[in-house]
Amino acid sequence: MAAKTNWYKEAVVYQIYPLSFMDSNNDGMGDICGIISKLDYIKELGATAIWFSPLYASPWKDYGYDISDYKAIHPAFGTMEDFDELIRECHARGLRVMMDAVFNHTSNEHAWFKAALADKTSPYRDYYIIRKGKKDKEGKLIPPTNWTSSFTGPAWERIEGTDEYYLHLFAPEQPDLNWENPKVREEMAGILRFWLEKGVDGFRFDVFNMISKVYPFKDDKNPLHFQKGVQYYVDGPRMHEFLKELNDKALSLYDTYTVGESYTPDEEHAYRYINEESGELDTIFHFEHLAADNIFGLKMIPKPFNLRQFKRGLIDTQLRYHGSGWNTLVLENHDQARCVSRFGIKKKYRYEAATFLAMITYLGWGTPFIYQGQEIGMTNTDFKSRGEMKDPVTHFIFDLAKGLHVPDSVSFRMMKGAARDNARTPMQWDASVNAGFNKGAEPWQCVNPDYKKINVSADLASDKSIYRFYQKLLALRKSEDTLIYGNTIEYYPDDRQVITYSRCYGDKRFLIVGNFSGVRADFIMPSDFELDELSIRMTNLGRSDAEIAEVLHLEPYEAILFEENR
Ligand code: GLC
């Protein structure tokens, strides 16, 4: 079946975390002018769109994911004129622009929330979820339900001087919006139209599948739930209706692309969110494969890397949606540790692993998302103390661990490898002061001390340039419809070292093979491929066609793309 073509299916999205990308005015924080100065770098990599993590006005309690004005640019990033210039400069280079839509919650400093708290009769009160507390057996006031926030602790915050609480599924400074209120939905559609009118081409919806809650509210009685209440606020009953409404009132009026960041959606719902017929979202992110080195996706509790789990995450999502929707391919983002520093990968394999991961991920079925710095193999930071880490979530977890009597040294060791701070250190441009991020002002988040060795200039000058490898890979992908639209077929799903899948479209086929381990692995050519019909189209460690054989001894993190020529 011929796949329905669309620009976003052929796109490659580069994610920018604006605070840490490029600081043009030397105030320690990245900004829009800095981004503009690097657009050619992004374009030349082969990206065709940029997703900007929040650029809006925000008190930065969660670094922009707490928005205080959806229609204003944070002054540290620049002005609205700078943003208009950014759109023009992106479009002039053929780069589409995607904004982050953080619609589950606002900042507690948003004018709506302030008005809601200031006056009980304010119409803004019903923009949020405010409920009277309950009394426990001893008559003490307790929150309306026992739900916990994704950032640890209770999901309800008491409103000072009252017996009422407001719901926040994230930090207390991120009150949840009440999507049951049609005015809230109207506001959100209006915000989308505001940015679309400016020329924005798409949106990434932050924790989108938490906007519809199950009413009336109930306690979570399941003792096995670590995070209480998920069944009452994830994939809620009106999710599909709310998304359709955003489409009717905003998204479908423009040529947009949408991707939802989900809190592990139920399969049935996920299918509906992205079904091409349903008019909800174009794609969602899947992070199941990124839980293959931690327990239950709780990033701070590491476990030995499990390749079979990684494959189920990376590949099953491709198989699941063939013919119905579209997929995304992700290795990193601003919430994840650096990919070359996880999955059991040793430092000495940084180049091999960076190129291997790019091949096995981005030759799959879906739109590639690349996070700033991933294209030069930036690594996790060897943080020396808790104080060096700025992410509030890191500190919530440290506090939680302390409360559970986990020694600081233990929680620090765990957090170091998993903390979101690893993704948020400044981009490493060159070996000059602060990695060329700025001219020497102290960056808001410390620079990774490995910057003298790992930076864009050094990478580009090296024979083993990861950037150039990405460039080649993305160009190849773009040139082959099979690598974009072809269905994925997996081989040897239970193999614990090797990942293998093919892509086929019409009568054209490619085979992707990679050794996801630090020791040699044997790979046996699947029986439906003929050796004399194969050639090597891309390889990260220099294999030649002459070496094609029934059994291949793959080097650590070696990846090969075979093309079938019939
Ligand atoms: C998403 C964002 C994350 C943020 C959270 C709350 O998961 O990616 O950075 O902290 O939502 O908005």
Question: Describe it for me?
Answer:
The mean pLDDT is 96. Helices cover 27% and strands 18% of the residues. Helix 5 (182-198) packs across helix 7 (239-249) and helix 11 (392-403) packs antiparallel against helix 12. The protein has helices spanning 32-37, 39-45, 80-92, 111-118, 182-198, 230-233, 239-249, 267-274, 307-321, 350-362, 392-403, 408-418, 421-424, 456-461, 466-479, 481-485, and strands spanning 13-16, 49-52, 56-57, 69-73, 96-101, 130-132, 134-135, 141-142, 156-158, 164-167, 202-205, 257-260, 283-284, 294-295, 298-302, 328-330, 367-371, 487-491, 498-505, 508-515, 521-524, 534-539, 551-554, 559-564. With 566 residues, the protein is of the alpha/beta class. The protein has three domains: 7-104 and 181-382 and 461-470, Glycosidases (TIM Barrel, Alpha-Beta Barrel); 111-167, Oligo-1,6-glucosidase, domain 2 (Alpha-Beta Complex); 484-564, Immunoglobulin-like, CATH 2.60.40.1180. The longest helix is centred in the middle third of the chain and has 17 residues, at 182-198. The structure holds alpha-D-glucopyranose. Alpha-D-glucopyranose binds at residues 62, 65, 102, 170, 206-207, 261, 334-335.
Helix and strand layout, with pairings?
Elements: E1 13-16, H1 32-37, H2 39-45, E2 49-52, E3 56-57, E4 69-73, H3 80-92, E5 96-101, H4 111-118, E6 130-132, E7 134-135, E8 141-142, E9 156-158, E10 164-167, H5 182-198, E11 202-205, H6 230-233, H7 239-249, E12 257-260, H8 267-274, E13 283-284, E14 294-295, E15 298-302, H9 307-321, E16 328-330, H10 350-362, E17 367-371, H11 392-403, H12 408-418, H13 421-424, H14 456-461, H15 466-479, H16 481-485, E18 487-491, E19 498-505, E20 508-515, E21 521-524, E22 534-539, E23 551-554, E24 559-564
Parallel strand pairs: 1-2, 1-17, 2-5, 5-11, 11-12, 12-13, 16-17
Antiparallel strand pairs: 3-4, 6-10, 7-8, 9-10, 14-15, 18-19, 19-20, 20-24, 21-23, 22-24
The structure holds alpha-D-glucopyranose (GLC).
